[in-house]
Amino acid sequence: MNSPQTSRRHFLSALGTLAAAGPVFGRDFGPGAEPVRYPEPDVVVLDPAFAKYKIGMAPLERLHTGMYWAEGPAWSGWGQYLVWSDIPNDVQLRWLQDDARVTTLRRPARHSNGNTFDRQARQISFEHGTRRVVRYEPDDSITVLAEKVGGKPLNGPNDGVVHPDGSVWFTDPGYGSLGNFEGHRGELHLKEAVYRIDPGGTVALVTDEIFKPNGLCFSPDYTKLYVCDTGASHFKDAPKNIKVWNVDGAQLKQGREFASMSMEVGGRTVAGLADGIRCDRDGNVWAALGWVGEGYDGVHVFSPAGQRIGQIRLPEICSNVCFGGPRRNRLFMTASRSLYAVYSEAQGAHWC
After folding, report:
1. pTM of this prediction?
2. Which of 29, 247, 280, 352 has the lowest CB atom count within 10 Å?
């Protein structure tokens, strides 16, 4: 027999499917806002496969606000804090687990976008302002991991992940070089692509079969690499989707569409852009989506087969996500000007 607590959670999660029939328009997350009745109405079960991940007593929370464009959340298991970037303000911020304080970690941050941590707990950042991938050493000195390919400067590294073999895989769509708000306006010398930095420091292209690669993540067993395509921001023929490749050592093979971003909202079919993504331990893909509006923007959860099974609706465009907390079961979401979080029964496949 299930324990009373387990039974109650499943019961409340089931009720959440009914309670979430429509979006909560104009939701106020500010001080003194009216409380929202459990179960959380903006964590939406679209398919029964998602019901086990929703906790009926877990609220959607806004932890901080005031950024211009929040991006790149990454959890430090060693430091028990979340780091993220405010790209236009050229700062990296830190949310502390022990007392929920937000402090400035680094300024200037060279307009860093994505952040992650390697297996030695060292932070790796992907900088728009300098077109570099850098690693912060324990004494806070900087090691440059990548800045050129074939003698040409990178476009503007965006996001990246670390493989158990010590390699760093990253995307280079060049958004930070298209204007002076998130970096420095300049020419793109390379086709948009995904690269791999091997443990010896060699940078190699692994695929350019994508318009503008953005967020990326490995499957739990590292046999697949998922990459979001935000090329529709600049290319009219670009699909709005997430692609997936098989990982074969240092190479990618059999690139194909994993999931389309199209869905029906309010009786019409719409499609936004998928930005940052993470896998949970069961192989589901949690994707930050936006640029459509109420009822769509937030996080969409896809099964390993690419079926949309769940949704976390946010009142802002969601840019990126990561799992964190001591049990790796709290989803942190950067969304336009704010940082949000919600607990779930899912656990991140990897620490960052």
Report:
1. 0.93
2. 29
